[in-house]
Amino acid sequence: MRKLKPYLLLALIVILIVLLLPTFFKIPSITNIFKPKSVTIDETPILIKDIRSIGQLITYVAYDEVVADSIIPSNTSALIRAFNTVSPVNLPTTDKRLVLIQKGKVFAGLDLAKLRDEDVKVTNHTAYIRLPAPTILEVVSNPSDIEIFSEQGKWNEGEVAAVKMKAQRMLVQRAQQRGIIDRAGVKASSLIDKFVTDAGYKVLITR
Amino acid sequence: MLTMVRLTIILFLFLFSCKSRDNDNKNRVLTLKDMSDLATVEYRVTKIIKASDNKTWYKLGDRKILMSCEATIKAGIDMSQLDKNNFQITDKSIKVNLPQPKIISINIPVESIKTEYMDVGILRSEFSNAERYSLATQAEQQIKASINELGILDQAKANTAAFVTQFLRRLGYEKININYNSRIGNERER
Question: What is the mean pLDDT of the segment spanning B144-172?
């Protein structure tokens, strides 16, 4: 036992050095030695391309999350499927498949820039206002809202963008099914009514 | 001997104990929510995304990528903060105290993200779609961090004042004074 003691002590010191070395020196720790370094982008300037005056009254937003998938069959997939129907062994097809999980916000309201002078008439301290129809104003789904859940095969940028556009259309459809446009119209009328009343007029709103 | 073994085991357990997992904070409310925002200015901006992947010691060769993206940023005011106390009316003259403008939305459309250039070493694989969108997410964070430097809120103030003035003029007011939370604003007369 006494003979083993120095060897055990040496082993312990070596283990401690190997484990504590990454803390003091910039070398990857044993557990992370094969962990790839994350890629970070450089700081680049933001360039203003356009500045636009708008007049959008945003009165409702729908937060949602959808799953969109797409399959692009390969040239040989029909042949492989036909073979699989008669064969006891199922061969894998070479179809491309992409599954996305996409979050998004659908904004609805009125575009008051469409309001013309003839849409606002004032008689005896009463304002008669004809508002434009409510509509979907914007769908926001940024890169941080999108997760590529599964990707089989090589998908180019255009093909991936097409699946994301499909997901956006699903977001809009679901928001519309929940009556976002009607709700946005009612809320907008209420806001305009309140603003004009606070500004000292009676108001009658039509669409 | 036994003591040494015990010490070694305890040391291993201490150093290789399980990491605590990050809590998943993605509790998203999947629902409709009402708003009262009047957006009066829209900025379209572009950003170049530049990245090099040459820091992993065991991967031989470099990978470089240049992408571009566009973002649309809207700003305006929250009309739910207005009530009759924000208006001071004298005959054909009106003073309005508007709330300070804010950023309403930041939108980076998927179709605006494009790969402009990619250089991949022989022993490396191309940037995957997931990797490209990870880089675009970093660009999104940089855009959000730099918004205040663009002057969009000052422009929103000017645009909102102009919009409200035009609306009040349609109602028949001749002298319109717009302030932002007790600051002296623009004075517009016929």
Answer: 95
Give the distance, in angstroms, between the CA of residue A64 and the centroid of all CA atoms in the same chain.
Answer: 9
Over 90: is that where the pLDDT of A23 sits? Answer: no
Establish if B171 touches chain A: CB-CB under 8 angstroms.
yes
Report whether pLDDT(A5) > 60. yes
Residues 16-55 of B with CB under 8 A from A: 16, 28-53, 55
pLDDT at B28 over 60: no
Contact A62, A137 (CB under 8 A): no
Query: CB distance from B77 to chain A under 8 Å?
Result: no
- Inter-CA distances, B31 with A33, A61, A180, Å: 44, 8, 10
3-state DSSP percent of chain A in helix, strand and coil, to 5: 40, 35, 25
pLDDT digits (tens, 9 = 90+) for B2-16: 776 676 666 655 555
For A100-132, letters b (16+ CB in 10 Å) and e give: bbbbbbbbbbbbbeebeeeebeeeeeebebebb
Q: Is residue B83 a contact partner of residue B163, using CB atoms and an 8 Å limit?
A: no
Q: Among B185, B170, B143, B163, which residue's Cα sits nearest to residue A52?
A: B163
ipTM score for this prediction? 0.79
Contacts of A67 in chain B (CB under 8 A): none
For an interface test with B, give the residue of A10, A21, A51 to mutate (most B CBs within 10 A). Answer: A51
A175 neighbors A64 (Cβ within 8 angstroms): yes
| Cβ atoms of B103 and B45 closer than 8 Å | no
* Cβ atoms within 10 Å, residue B107: 19
- For A147-179, what is each residue's pLDDT tens digit? 999 999 889 888 999 999 999 999 999 999 999
Looking at this protein, which amino acid is placed at residue B41?
V
- Look at B1 and A1 and tell me if their CB atoms are within 8 Å: yes
Cα–Cα distance measured from residue A199 to residue B86, given in angstroms and rounded to the nearest whole number:
9
Give bridge partners of residue A206 from the DSSP assignment.
A130
Residues facing residue A52 across a β-bridge: B42
Query: What pTM was estimated for this model as a whole?
Result: 0.80
Q: What confidence tens digit (pLDDT) does each residue in A102-128 have? A: 999 999 999 999 999 899 999 988 999
The H-or-E segment that residue A171 falls in is helix A157-177
* Closest CA relative to residue B53, chosen from B131, B116, B112: B131
